[in-house]
Amino acid sequence: MVMMLSVSRYNVLQLTDGVETMGHVRWQLLLCNLSVCILLFLCVFKGIKLSGKIMYVAATVPYIFLTILLVRGLTLEGAWLGLKFYFVPRWEELLRPSVWFDAASQVIFSLGFGTADHIILASHNKFHHNIYRDAMVVPVVDAFTSLFSGCVIFVTLGYMATTFNLDIHKVVADGPGIAFMVFPEALSTLPWPQVWSTLFFLTLLVVGLDTRIVMIQVLTGSLGDINPHLFRSKVAWTSAAICLVTFVLGIPFCCQGGMYVLQLVDWYIASVALLLIVFLESSVLAWIYVVYASLSELYQFPGVTFPLLNL
């Protein structure tokens, strides 16, 4: 395991000593960045008509891959050790504020709150679409997906702890390390490791594309609202420009010190800033744009009722 971490740190990433030393651009990572941006453009250059169809596949395929990985993982020695570690609660952890902060950040990021994802995607629905039903279904599906993918991860970590005769606490890692160092190390010990590794990284690729497609739709939709004549009539050019900008912005992450930049962005933008944005949005909707005014507008949509609120 230590060897795998060293290979990833010094051979693949060639990490520097800190964020103050960025080093040079790793051309392998830059090529991957370019390939993803090109693939992303091919998914969105025709607008929602094409990307909407791709999303059906991108949202379904990961479940198939995860199911295959879970079935395989459950047959491994130590899998139940990982599931026990995953599901048996440690109540004392609830006393730590960082646990609640991490949980809130994960839920908000996973559901796409505070980033206008739902607003832009919902704008393509019919006017009388039942958004109240969607608001109930989406969190349930998201929670199930999180639990399901967690099972895949922890059965593998349990197997890894048993194989290397380690305490499972020492195997579990957070951040990108679990996906790009710990998990591949576990898969490399299985029969036909190339098959399982390919399946795992294909899952990551599809999930990542799924997220990036939505982000591009948010940007193109927002620009289209600002200037419909300029941006909506030239969706392909707008998408190409956005993909080019994302490629350029991704170059610092391809440097030897890019992992440190990723961790900073992940913490301050995807966690702290997102929590603050959601808090401010909720406060504005609840106290400035009065909640009853919001509900009265929703009553314009046939079939939308709020039985729990008795309104």
Automatic annotation (TrEMBL):
Membrane topology: Multi-pass membrane protein
Record family assignment: Belongs to the sodium:neurotransmitter symporter (SNF) (TC 2.A.22) family.
Keywords for the protein's UniProt record, in alphabetical order: Glycoprotein, Membrane, Metal-binding, Sodium, Transmembrane, Transmembrane helix, Transport
UniProt GO MF annotations: amino acid:sodium symporter activity; L-amino acid transmembrane transporter activity; metal ion binding
Pfam families assigned to the protein according to its UniProt record, in alphabetical order: SNF
One record GO biological process: amino acid import across plasma membrane
Record has Coiled coil as a keyword: no
Domain of life (superkingdom): Eukaryota
Organism: Mizuhopecten yessoensis (Japanese scallop)
Binding site for Na(+): 110, 210
A single cellular component GO annotation: plasma membrane
Official protein name in the record: Sodium-and chloride-dependent glycine transporter 2
InterPro entries hit by this protein: Na/ntran_symport (IPR000175), SNS_sf (IPR037272)
PROSITE patterns for this protein: NA_NEUROTRAN_SYMP_3 (PS50267)
Subcellular location, record wording: Membrane
